[in-house]
Specification:
By secondary structure, the chain is an alpha+beta fold. The chain is built from six helices and nine strands. It has helices at about 5-10, 115-125, 170-175, 185-190, 195-200, 220-240, and strands spanning about 30-40, 45-50, 55-60, 75-80, 90, 100-110, 125-130, 135-145, 155-160.
Length: about 240
């Protein structure tokens, strides 16, 4: 596993992303880093990353993780990323690879549930435990044949195992803020000179109030105005008495 593909795709004089060839942004730790980055590029997706053998193994999950064990989320394998990328939150210029706004949606550590991670990856069945700020418990990445592959790289499924952390809650909808800065995508774009309008499409959308229907033959707002006049008339009558 190398970072050659990662570096070939990026112009580090233009993008603020780490090149991975300098001093690591994080101190060495016995624990393995885990991170999910919410990325509003051409399409909104969630980049799921596990630190292993000096890099971040990476999968793009279009719909994000689900806490429901019955829901299997497509995870398209992408190029390995440098360990320093786990802290990256900001804006990739629009004309660069992956152009858009990036949020550290969840971060923490992970533990393999298998004796040999490399063998599990080759087999296409990796079981692990997450210790994140949002995601916890037992999970699996299972390689699958068929649609969803990315330029010759296989597609996988991200699956939550049944345990005390399993739920039917919409975790991505209920917890849309950054795990490290508590900002929304639009805030990150605004703070870093990005496309705020585009980034905001990846944030929860405000509910639009349904207008009150008027009675047949009645103009909208007339009934309300009439009611106000009636209230004033009543008040005036009381005053006279």
């Amino acid at each position: 596993m190398t970072l050659d593909e990662y570096r070939k795709k990026r112009n580090f004089t233009a993008t603020p992303e780490p090149s991975g060839d300098g001093t690591p942004a994080r101190k060495e730790s016995a624990k393995l880093i885990y991170v999910i980055q919410k990325h509003r590029a051409t399409q909104l997706h969630y980049d799921f990353r596990l630190a292993w053998a000096g890099t971040l193994l990476s999968w793009a999950v279009p719909k994000g993780p689900s806490l429901d064990p019955s829901v299997k989320r497509l995870a398209m394998q992408v190029e390995d990323h440098p360990i320093e990328y786990a802290d990256f939150e900001g804006v990739i210029p629009a004309d660069e690879y992956g152009g858009g706004t990036v949020m550290v949606w969840d971060i923490g550590t992970w533990e393999p549930e298998v004796p040999n991670v490399d063998a599990a990856l080759r087999k296409g069945d990796l079981k692990f435990t997450l210790h994140g700020k949002k995601l916890q418990g037992s999970w699996a990445l299972v390689r699958t044949a068929g649609w969803g592959g990315n330029r010759g790289k296989p597609s996988w499924l991200l699956i939550k195992h049944r345990d005390q952390y399993a739920s039917d809650a919409d975790i991505t909808g209920e917890q849309p803020h950054s795990a490290i800065s508590h900002r929304l995508l639009a805030d990150i774009a605004r703070d870093n000179g990005g496309d705020v309008e585009k980034a905001a499409t990846g944030d929860p959308q405000p509910e639009v109030a349904t207008p009150t229907k008027a009675s047949p033959g009645e103009k909208p707002g007339v009934k309300q105005a009439a009611t106000k006049k009636s209230v004033k008339k009543t008040a005036a009558t009381k005053t006279i008495k």
